[in-house]
C-alpha cells in the first residue's frame, strides 16, 4: 500500500474518534509527498529533512509523523519505527498577542463601516458587524464566518457556535444591543444578498450568498489597521484580527477585577464562553497587560494583608 493511502486510512480512523485532524492531515500528506518512496525505506534522515522544511511547526509535525509511523508498525505495514527515539529541538514561542484598547476598537469599527463600494454595497456593513461580533463574543474568525442564519436565536439572545476547535459546540448569551445590531444587519443582508440555503445560509455572506474565506477577511482587516495607522514599530507581528478575541478576554477579566467579581467562578465561565479546551489556556490572559498584572497584584496584597 502506498504511503499516501496509509496516511488517508490513518486520518480517517482519527476522525472517527471525533478529531478534526486537518492540520495533521496536511502535515502527513506533505511528509508522504516529501519522502516519495516505499514506507519500508523511510529513514531518520528522511524525517529530519522533512522537519527542516517546516520549521515553524516541526514539533507538532514530528509528533504526528511519529504517531503515524508507530501506527504503521502496530498494523504491520512497517517493521520498525525509524524515528521513535528522534526528538527535534523545540523552540518555545515568546509571541504576545496585541491587546486593543477601547478607542482602537472604535476606530477599527468606524473604518470598517466605510468600506462599501459599487461592486459590493454591503461590504462595509458586513465587515463592521463581523468585527463587532468577534470582539463582543470573543470568537475565532473561523467561528464567525461559519455562522448560519439559524445560529442566531433572536428570541433568547443566543449565538450558537457549531463544532468549532476541539469539536466543541457552545451557546453564547449576548446583550440586547448586540442582538439589535445583528437583527438590523440580517434584514439588510436578506434584502441585498441571496440566501442560497435558506436558514442554513451563511449569516455573513459574499455577493453570491456564499461564505467568506478567512484569508479575505484577514486581508481586509490588515487594510483597516493600516488605514487608521495602527502600526507598532517594535512589534515583529502587527496587530491581527485574532487579537480582538484576546482583547475581549482581557477586557472581561479587567471588568471582573474592577467590579470585585469572584475570579474563581469567573475564569471557568470565561473559559467555557471562549471554547477553551482547558482553563489553563484562559489563565494565560492574566499576565497579558500591565493593567491586569497590577490588578492581580493588588488583589493578592489585599488577600494577604486583609485590607
Overall description:
- The structure is a single chain.
- The protein is mainly α.
- It folds into 3 domains: 3-74; 104-227, Intergrase catalytic core (hpI Integrase, Chain A, Orthogonal Bundle); 243-305, no CATH class.
- Helix content is 54%, strand content 3%.
- It has helices spanning 3-15, 22-35, 44-53, 58-74, 102-113, 123-137, 141-145, 176-192, 214-227, 243-258, 263-274, 279-283, 290-305, and strands at residues 152-153, 158-161, 170-173.
- Strands 1-2-3 form a 3-stranded antiparallel β-sheet, with no helix packed on it.
- β2 (158-161) and β3 form a beta hairpin.
- α3 (44-53) runs antiparallel to α4 (58-74).
- The longest helix has 17 residues, at 58-74.
- The chain is globular.
- Residues 303-307 have low confidence and may be disordered.
Summary of the model, kept short:
This protein is mainly α. It has helices at residues 3-15, 22-35, 44-53, 58-74, 102-113, 123-137, 141-145, 176-192, 214-227, 243-258, 263-274, 279-283, 290-305; strands spanning 152-153, 158-161, 170-173. It contains 13 helices and 3 strands.
Count of extended strands: 3
**Poorly predicted tracts of residues:** 303-307
Q: What is the domain tally?
A: 3
**SS content category:** mainly alpha
Spatial extent as radius of gyration: 23 Å
Average pLDDT taken over every residue: 84
Number of helices: 13
Distance between the termini: 71 Å
The biggest beta sheet is recorded as: 3 strands, antiparallel
CATH superfamily caption of the largest domain: Intergrase catalytic core
SSE order, as H and E?
Answer: HHHHHHHEEEHHHHHH
- CATH third-tier fold name of the largest domain: hpI Integrase, Chain A
Hey, roughly how much beta strand do the residues contain? under 5%
Please name the CATH architecture of the largest domain: Orthogonal Bundle
Strand order across the largest sheet:
1-2-3
